[in-house]
């Protein structure tokens, strides 16, 4: 029987963003992308913790493998903390969830650096322009989720996570730097920390096979 893996995507990401991951999904996994507009339409964590269990129930899922990329990683941690019995395994991919007072301007600079150093900058800008109507419509949700992602700190709660946890991190991530992955690894008992050489924040979009090879 295929394992049910739910991915909580990164900030502003669509299902199209993870097409490579979907197309490369092994036969022994059933992958579902839980889009923010479906599980967190108001942009509040309280909203997510109410809607995501409903989303799983509608899919007929009782226990899952839960993966979270960037913003989605912080949401995944929040869910595991509240509903630990619903998760068989937690997978964090260059996750948000570590904040130690970094300057917002530095965070913004790193966000832009992440876009242009991955070799995907022009494509991202074109996609953003093409989907601008959708982004405008979803702007309030994205704004609130972005504010949450930049400043949420979940390190103090890491010791409460008892499910098997794999942490995957791009060595050259400029948005959520490697030290943040190390902090999460230290905070979550018995977690497995895998550093992906020469990879940036969004490596899962350009090199999805690395995800399947390491979980």
Outline the fold blueprint:
Layout lengths: L2 E6 L10 H5 L5 E5 L2 H4 L5 H14 L5 E6 L1 H12 L4 E7 L10 H14 L3 H10 L1 H6 L1 H13 L13 E6 L7 H10 L4 E5 L6 H4 L2 H6 L1
Parallel strand pairs: 1-2, 1-3, 3-4, 4-5, 5-6
Helix pairs in contact: 3-4
Description:
By secondary structure, this protein is an alpha/beta fold. The chain has one domain (3-214): Rossmann fold (3-Layer(aba) Sandwich). It is built from eleven helices and six strands. It has a six-stranded parallel β-sheet.
CATH class: Alpha Beta
CATH topology: Rossmann fold
According to CATH, the homologous superfamily is Alpha/Beta hydrolase fold, catalytic domain
Uncertain parts = 115-119
Descriptive key words:
Rossmann fold, 6 strands, alpha/beta, globular, 215 residues
Overview in brief:
The chain has 215 residues and is of the alpha/beta class. It has helices at residues 19-23, 36-39, 45-58, 71-82, 104-117, 121-130, 132-137, 139-151, 178-187, 203-206, 209-214, and strands at 3-8, 29-33, 64-69, 87-93, 165-170, 192-196.
């Amino acid at each position: 029987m295929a394992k049910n893996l739910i991915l909580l995507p990164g900030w502003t990401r669509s299902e199209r963003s993870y097409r490579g991951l979907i197309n490369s999904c092994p036969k022994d996994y059933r992958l579902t992308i839980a889009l923010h507009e479906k599980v967190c339409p108001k942009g509040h964590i309280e909203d997510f913790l109410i809607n995501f269990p409903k989303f799983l129930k509608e899919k007929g899922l009782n226990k899952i493998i839960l993966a979270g990329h960037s913003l989605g990683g912080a949401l995944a941690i929040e869910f595991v903390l509240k509903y630990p019995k619903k998760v068989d395994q937690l997978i964090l991919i260059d996750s948000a969830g570590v904040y130690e007072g970094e300057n917002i301007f530095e965070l913004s600079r790193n966000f832009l650096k992440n876009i242009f150093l991955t070799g995907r900058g022009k494509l991202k800008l074109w996609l953003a322009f093409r989907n601008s109507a959708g982004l405008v419509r979803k702007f309030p949700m994205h704004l609130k989720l972005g504010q949450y992602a930049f400043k949420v700190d979940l390190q103090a709660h890491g010791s409460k996570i008892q499910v098997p946890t794999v942490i995957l991190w791009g060595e050259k991530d400029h948005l959520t730097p490697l030290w943040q992955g190390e902090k999460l690894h230290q905070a979550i008992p018995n977690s497995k920390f895998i550093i992906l050489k020469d990879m940036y924040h969004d490596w899962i979009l350009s090199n999805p096979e690395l995800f399947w090879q390491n979980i």
